[in-house]
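Reviewers of the previous submission asked for a worked example of the structure-prediction workflow described in the proposal, so we include one complete record here. The input consisted solely of the amino acid sequence. No template or homolog information was supplied to the procedure at any stage.
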Amino acid sequence: QVQVVESGGGLVQPGGSLRLSCSTSGSIFSFHTMGWYRQAPGKQRDLVATITSGGSTNYADSVKGRFSISRDNAKNMVFLQMNSLKPEDTAVYYCNVRSYAAGTYWGQGTQVTVSS
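From that input alone, the workflow returned the following structure tokens.
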């Protein structure tokens, strides 16, 4: 069974930066797509960014130019560098990993709070 664990969240002032990490374990399969989603209180979980095994990236319009997703295929990890953070970025951030062989898995989430 695949385990997915996020880390790196916390409290940051507007304009600040955070780097989220997502580690995976328990699968011999590689993940075709790895990504980050976020959910603010009272809202649905929304896509933030994804990255494929080939390195193709996709970002939500709200984070383009500010966030950067990357992955380490050898370690089966994915990262999210968040710069120029805004209060609107406050949410629980979830790591998602997907493969056709193993399915899709979610982490427990890590809280990101942007406030002065």
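The chain has a mean pLDDT of 95. We consider this example representative of the routine output the project will generate in years two and three.
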